[in-house]
Amino acid sequence: MKTNNLKQSAFIFVLLLGFISLLSDFTHEGARSIYGSYLELIGASAFLIALVSGIGELIGQTLRIVTGYIADKSKKYWTMMFIGYSVNLLVIPLLYFVDGSIYYVAIILILLERVGKGIRAPAKSALTSFTAPHLGVGKSFAIQEALDQFGAFLGPLFVFMVLSFKGDTSLSAYQLSFGLLGIFGVLTIVILVIAKFKYPHPDEFEEVSPKGSLKGNKAFIFYMAGVTFIALGFIDYPLLAFHLESNPTFDPIFIPLLYSLAMGIDAISALIFGSIFDKKGIIALIIAIIISAFIAPLFFLGNTLFNIIGGVILWGIGMGAHESILKAVIAKVVSKENRATAYGIFYTIFGISWFIGSVIVGSLYDFNLLFLVIYGSLMEVMAVILLLIYKYKIEHKLNEEKASLT
Fold first, then answer.
1. How far is Cα 318 from Cα 285, in angstroms, rounded to an integer?
2. Domain count across the chain
3. Residues ≥6 apart with Cβ < 8 Å to 298
4. Per-residue model confidence as pLDDT tens digits over 301-321
5. How far apart are the C-alpha atoms of 308 and 262, rounded to whole Å?
6. What's the longest Cα–Cα distance across the chain?
7. Cα separation of 280 and 138, whole Å?
8. β strands within 28-177, DSSP E
9. Ramachandran sector of residue 163 (left: φ over 0; alpha: ψ -120 to 50; beta: rest)
10. pLDDT digit string (tens) for 197-214?
């Protein structure tokens, strides 16, 4: 009975985290779907827009190596969540008041939104991982990711509806979108308060933890090498959107709608691959990477509607699988005492690699699309090779250690 109660409590806890993710992604992904257009409208150059996007992601990712360490040492997971979500979400409605005369304020607010995510992300991943013994690590992250991406699907769709209601893409339409998104940011904080009071010590869900510390953890180090190649070669959505802007047969007003489609596919993909991971282990991630290798060829080597929608669908599948599985693996190789730190390291390496990869991909886009396709696919192939070695050299040993613990 006690085990059943713990499983039920763990499930409810993951659902609460999932609804927090749903509302927060509704807010900031809705905003991110129009950042580029909004910044251009208030006077930012293409270079400045790309620079802000890149720096924002870099800051948001690299900050996590610090915030993850703080979360582990202080065990103040909820405090990190409150600070992070407050900064991450409540700056968005402030964009309602920003126009071209103070465009630099918009840049600061957009960067702060990424900082907020950097503060709360390692603590959130650690909290999710604590439920793994009762739900399965793949399932825990998959449920949270599915709800997360459902919010990311609804947010841009909501913005599309606001813009359609206004009947234009004027500055006032963008400002109204940011203001209305703030409502969902406030709702996120409300549910966060409820979750904290209902589950003040979620780390107690995980009574038996893997032995993996961080120092000398060969499984973690080798895994991060594979993750680096995944990030180096994965194409980010802003470049897909930029490519669509130059397609004369595609109306730019549908770009947020297309992003919503990707997020919907992402949510479904997370549930499927999370379940596969609990049964098959790292092979689920390998399958997802193989799928991701076909994104660039399909999307960039043709201008038909089939290429556009097909490429976005594959991108959504890749994102969903990555988001649910990449973090799940870490819960299997690192003890819960060091897990937020491990997630901080993971996010930092992934973010830096993504930033470097984005610079390379952006340069190749201007130089030659075929070279971009070759580069992106090659990086994913390298990741597959490393993870196959991981599976047959390391995962088997980890499974033996897990069996000895039980």
1. 9
2. 1
3. 307, 310, 311, 314
4. 877 778 888 888 898 888 888
5. 11
6. 65
7. 10
8. none
9. alpha
10. 999 888 777 765 555 556
Residue 101 buriedness (CB in 10 A; 0-12 / 13-18 / 19+): exposed
What CATH number does the domain containing 370 carry?
1.20.1250.20
Query: In the prediction, which pLDDT does 401 show?
Result: 57
Residues of the chain whose pLDDT is less than 50?
A: 1
pLDDT for res 67: 93
Residue 12's region, left for phi above 0, alpha for psi from -120 to 50, else beta, is: alpha
Identity at 16, one-letter amino acid code: L
Domain residues for the domain of 151 are 2-405
DSSP state of 34: H
Q: Sign of dihedral through CA atoms 190, 192, 193, 199?
A: positive
Nearest CA-CA partner of 359 in 211, 235, 245: 235
Say which residues have a Cβ less than 8 Å from residue 16's Cβ, sequence separation at least 6: 191, 194, 195, 198, 199
Alpha carbon distance 244, 91 (integer Å): 29
Q: What is the pTM of this model?
A: 0.79
